[in-house]
């Protein structure tokens, strides 16, 4: 099987490539990635020689057209996206270019080539915010951030390609991921690395927003299960049912690193901040999937990884990231 993994140099895409390199070693793995600020070939160092890499944009139709033929691609898993809510609030255009137009172009080329299966990796954020209960795959799509709106646009293009052309597509929608190689702008790696640098952690608003935290390898196992056993044209929610308020999450990280609440810096809330995400993953259970890593275990592994891999994250917190973060922080203080 020849599989194209778009966005395979990012946080989750690279975990998927590392997993396939071990668990599906007879597959030909082709990683296609634009290498934006979030893409990093160091994420794939452990599996060097076990994949082929092509630098490219999913919105570049001609390039995709050629890659699908040159590498005789059978299936596509699309991780490529702009992914950070705070960045989307500052400027949403790149989100539309990649998450909507890029998805559209990739889908259109996949259809023209007769790709056997196209899996779109999506997010629970397309459903909006839920005060009580859990979202099923039939819940309405009510995105609130420019990021979530652009992911919804991509999902709807995938749906339309099935309804209109009968294209063999599947969508997965996962909850918040965490784990090794997580870019240090997202809350968990940001807080861990700040504390490792003896800096305070900026907690938005009242800290009572809730997220369901899924260990990245559990997500990847879920995507593989859907790719191999899921039904064409369907959607699969992938959640961990490990809900935490941001304040509880922060306290766990503080405790693990030997700090107290004096390291919390309350800052202005995010605009349009979704209060709670919660997924019903019954359909995934029917495929035989269940998360294997508890939050208690996963956060320890993640913290240990960041402690041991300063050389990976330190440079990411300098340079352009530093400027982005300075702006964010000044606005919120
Ligand atoms: P990430 O930001 O770490 O990585 C995104 C990757 O896509 C990077 O390697 C980047 O270079 C690449 N990319 C961006 N634009 C591209 C383009 N136009 N063409 C080709 N490559 C491009 O993101 P992530 O956290 O690994 O998320 C991967 C996918 O999973 C996204 O689609 C995201 O919406 C979805 N998702 C993420 C989470 C989460 O908690 N991180 C949860 C659910 C779903
Ligand atoms: P984030 O990691 O950006 O993921 P998402 O917005 O996609 O869920 O944020 C997770 C939660 O943490 C969210 O409720 C916002 C909050 N947060 C902070 O309190 N401080 C921060 O510095 C960041 C980045 C996020």
Description of the molecule:
The protein is an alpha/beta fold and 333 residues long. It has a domain at 2-177 and 213-238: Rossmann fold (3-Layer(aba) Sandwich), CATH 3.40.50.720. 43% of the residues lie in helices and 17% in strands. The protein has helices spanning 11-23, 61-70, 85-90, 93-113, 146-165, 187-196, 216-229, 246-256, 282-286, 295-308, 310-313, 319-332, and strands spanning 2-6, 28-33, 52-55, 75-78, 117-123, 169-174, 176-178, 201-204, 210-215, 235-238, 243-245, 264-267. The protein has a seven-stranded parallel sheet with strand order 3-2-1-4-5-6-10, sandwiched between helices. Helix 1 (11-23) packs across helix 7, helix 2 runs parallel beside helix 4 (93-113) and helix 6 (187-196) packs across helix 10 (295-308). The radius of gyration is 19 Å and the shape is globular. The mean pLDDT is 96. The protein binds nicotinamide-adenine-dinucleotide and thymidine-5'-diphosphate (TYD). Nicotinamide-adenine-dinucleotide is lined by residues 6-7, 9-13, 33-36, 38-39, 57-59, 79-83, 98, 102, 121, 123, 151, 174, 176-177, 183. Nicotinamide-adenine-dinucleotide binds at residues 6-7, 9-13, 33-36, 38-39, 57-59, 79-83, 98, 102, 121, 123, 151, 174, 176-177, 183.
């Amino acid at each position: 099987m020849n599989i194209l993994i778009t966005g395979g140099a990012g946080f989750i895409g690279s975990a998927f490539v590392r997993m396939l390199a071990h668990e599906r070693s007879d597959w030909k793995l082709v990683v296609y990635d634009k290498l934006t600020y979030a893409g990093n070939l160091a994420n794939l160092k452990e599996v060097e020689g076990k994949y082929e890499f092509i630098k490219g944009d999913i919105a570049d139709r001609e390039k995709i057209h050629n890659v699908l033929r040159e590498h005789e691609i059978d299936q596509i898993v699309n991780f490529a996206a702009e992914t950070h809510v705070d960045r989307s609030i500052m400027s949403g255009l790149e989100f539309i270019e990649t998450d909507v137009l890029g998805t559209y172009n990739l889908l259109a080329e996949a259809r023209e080539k007769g790709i056997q299966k196209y899996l779109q990796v999506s997010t629970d954020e397309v459903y909006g915010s839920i005060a009580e209960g859990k979202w099923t795959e039939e819940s309405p799509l009510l995105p609130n951030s420019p990021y979530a709106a652009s992911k919804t646009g991509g999902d709807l293009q995938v749906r339309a390609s099935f309804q209109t052309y009968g294209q063999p597509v599947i969508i997965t929608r996962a909850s918040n991921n965490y784990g090794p190689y997580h870019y240090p702008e997202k809350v968990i790696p940001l807080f861990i690395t700040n504390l490792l640098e003896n800096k305070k952690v900026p907690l938005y608003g009242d800290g009572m927003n809730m997220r369901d935290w899924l260990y990245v390898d559990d997500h990847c196992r879920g995507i593989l299960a859907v790719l191999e056993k899921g039904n064409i044209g369907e959607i699969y929610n992938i959640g961990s049912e490990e809900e935490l308020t941001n304040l509880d999450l922060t306290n766990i990280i503080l405790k693990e690193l030997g700090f107290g609440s004096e390291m919390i810096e309350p800052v202005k809330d995010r605009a349009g901040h979704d209060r709670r995400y919660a997924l019903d993953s019954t359909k995934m259970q029917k495929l035989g999937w269940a998360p294997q890593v508890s939050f208690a275990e996963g956060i320890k592994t993640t913290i240990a990884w960041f402690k041991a891999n300063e050389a990976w994250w330190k440079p990411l917190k300098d340079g352009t990231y530093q400027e982005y973060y300075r702006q964010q922080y000044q606005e919120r203080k």
